[in-house]
Amino acid sequence: MPERFYSLLLRLYPRAFRQRYADEMVRVFCDRLRHESAARVWIDVLGDAVASIPRQHWRREPHPIYPSSAAPLRAAYTTVMQAMLVSAILGGFLGVGLMMTAYLGITAVMTRFPGGLLAVGLIFLVWLSAFRKARRTSQTLKTFRYDAGGDSVTVASDGMAPLTLQRSEVTGLHDFEKVGLRIQTADPARDLWVPVTAASYPSVKARVSEWAPVTVTPLRLVPVDGGFLQLSLLYALGLFIPMTFAAGIAGALLLNAIWAMAKRDLPARKTLLYLGPVAILLVRWLW
Amino acid sequence: MPRRKLDPLPSTAFHILLALAGGEKHGYGIMRQVADDTDNKVRLGPGTLYGSIQTLLDAGYVDEIGERADATSGDERRRYYRLSRAGRAAVKAEAERLAGLLRLAKSKKMLKGAHA
Predict the structure, then answer these.
(1) Predicted confidence (pLDDT) per residue in B15-52, tens digit
(2) What kind of fold does domain B3-115 have according to CATH?
(3) CA atoms within 13 A on the CB side of A117
(4) Reported pTM
(5) What is the spatial distance between Cα A178 and Cα A196, in angstroms, rounded to a whole number?
(6) β-strand partners of B77
(7) ipTM of this model?
(8) What distance in Å separates the CA atoms of residue A56 and residue A48, rounded to the nearest whole number?
(9) Which end of chain B, N or C, is surrounded by fewer C-beta atoms within 10 Å?
(10) Residues of A in contact with B60 (CB under 8 A)
(11) pLDDT tens-digit series, residues A156-181
(12) Which residue of chain A has the CA closest to B64?
């Protein structure tokens, strides 16, 4: 039972860290329980969690799209899927997101409500983070080297073990126009992503196309060729506009609730109404 | 993670590398070794331990050498780590840096008792 509680606590760590180390951390936790008092172990791990969870979330992954767990470019694939989804509803999100930001800014100035300015600042912080992530991704994409020869395709990058897929492992190919080629395997963690910016993209595509049928997905609404600006747009559209929108709404509700409570102008049930969406967003984010 | 973040070596990373200097170990083995080395003054939690191990792996100071069963815990398989050549050099450099600081403190008569 204690290890189940500890496993729940581990869900607060970033997913990549959890996938790599959660099993080992649970094992260490159980080892300690065997040799030390439960109270001592819990005090230690809770104190450790308070310090290490924010650190892991803050930590910049050295390689955002080719983690050492050999799940190559999975994050890029996810982002593309998100971009496709958001492309369909782009107008709504973009329009509402921009309007809300402008609304918060203007009302903050007009009503001298400092929390509103804080919310606008937070939104811009999220956008800044999107641009930084896009720049890192763009730089990282340039370091990949692909090689398709014989019955295998290999991707390598400095400081990482190369990943090789054998022809027999390939179950399908998914060609995202103007973005790249996803070489699919039975284990999604081993899927390989070849961006169109890779110098060897044409030769790899020509070679692997002989191995499995290709599914083509046109991507007309979000043309991306792997450059910094295009990737910034991709991240912003695919991930950060919905997040900005949601975070903005939650922030505005929370700040308004705090402001009203400070003025003793808000009944308790309305406080719950305001704080509910924030709690839901928080839980969703952690999960 | 860029190596400049490990220069100077953070104390947790230094303890982990020192623990691995005695031979390859799994996570709990490292934790126990650090506690033994420091008379239980330094107790690494799992999050801190594996966060530091991740950093050291990224920097090339530690190598992961796969999983195998631990003789003391039955059949449970564990991931083992060992000090790399770069890690050994980093430990030596950090130890020399600390020794230099110690000499400086001595010259300023800031140490008492056995250390002096």
Answers:
(1) 999 999 988 899 999 999 999 999 888 888 899 999 99
(2) Arc Repressor Mutant, subunit A (1.10.10)
(3) 7
(4) 0.50
(5) 7
(6) B69
(7) 0.83
(8) 12
(9) C
(10) 159
(11) 776 666 778 888 888 888 887 766 78
(12) A68
